[in-house]
Design goal:
alpha/beta; Elongation Factor Tu (Ef-tu), domain 3; Rossmann fold; 2 domains; 6-stranded antiparallel beta sheet; 8 helices
Length: 273
């Protein structure tokens, strides 16, 4: 019988620094059949581990259509991620998953997709953005709103510029430096300042504090809660509903029902967390 807690070995095949504390890891399972059969939806996550240093849930940032590898965007925030940041291409990590409930791209067909991300929240949305681009004819106008604390914390800078050919991309920072000539403020203000049609579908990922003010601005544009999905990925731990870290109301496990929720469902669950 398969052990759901037993990680599969996987090789770091490429590592790219995105900021001074965030790196993009291209990963491939050591077992070719495991890699071939690895499938997921945008918004799902895996558990990455290093023996002796622990394990952490990380959302997959590459699109499902990429089959020869998958990518994780990892910010250095603790003992495990510090260890991973010291690793080199060719090193081996453990991977469990994928886990959780992802975004439904089919739910967005015919709508104008709006991607709203704060900080590292752009990483899981990148998976969905790339899938939407791959099926471009099934959607209306695409908008991407991204906010970072400072200019040097903007991740996927090159790709954000490339995406301007396919989407309306707006970027803001909380605090500017001498070289920044773009918008300064919260990402919800970007939404407030834009003309957004009511036949749009928004997906949001980032610090939970950004959800309410952002959705408030979307509502003013005529977008209902059921036209908004959010990711509550920061609530997860084991990924399989055993540790209780993400339990809400004594019976709801965010790692199983989420991390992606419609906003109306998220409002119910967040009251119980």
């Amino acid at each position: 019988m398969d052990n759901e807690f037993l990680p599969s070995p996987a090789k770091l095949v490429d590592i790219k620094a995105l900021t001074n504390d965030t790196k993009l890891y291209r990963i491939r399972f050591s077992d070719d059949s495991r890699q071939k059969n690895f499938s997921f939806k945008p918004g799902q996550f895996v558990e990455i581990s290093v023996a002796g240093f622990g394990e952490a849930p990380i959302s997959i940032t590459s699109p499902p259509s990429t089959e020869e590898y998958f990518e994780l965007c990892i910010k250095r925030v603790g003992r495990l991620t510090e260890k991973i940041h010291r690793m080199k291409a060719g090193d081996i990590v453990g991977i469990r998953g994928p886990y959780g409930n992802g975004f439904s791209i089919e739910q967005m067909y015919g709508f104008n997709p709006i991607f709203i991300a704060g900080g590292i929240g752009l990483a899981p949305l990148r998976s969905l953005i790339k899938e939407v681009f791959a099926e471009r004819d099934k959607f209306g106008n695409i908008s991407i709103f991204f906010g970072a604390r400072r200019p040097e914390e903007i991740i996927f800078k090159d790709e954000l510029e490339e995406w301007r050919e396919m989407a309306d991309v707006k970027i803001t920072v909380d605090r500017a430096d001498d070289g920044w000539d773009g918008h300064v403020g919260f990402v919800s203000q970007l939404v407030e300042n834009e003309e957004i049609p009511d036949d749009s579908f928004a997906v949001i990922c980032g610090p939970p504090a950004m959800f309410e003010p952002t959705v408030e601005q979307l509502k003013k544009k005529g977008i209902n809660d059921i036209q908004v999905s959010v990711s509550a990925e920061r609530r997860m731990k084991c990924g399989v509903g055993k540790c209780g870290h993400c339990i809400a109301g004594g019976e709801i496990y965010v790692c199983l029902e989420g991390p992606v929720f419609s906003y109306d469902r998220y409002k119910e669950i967040s009251k119980m967390l």
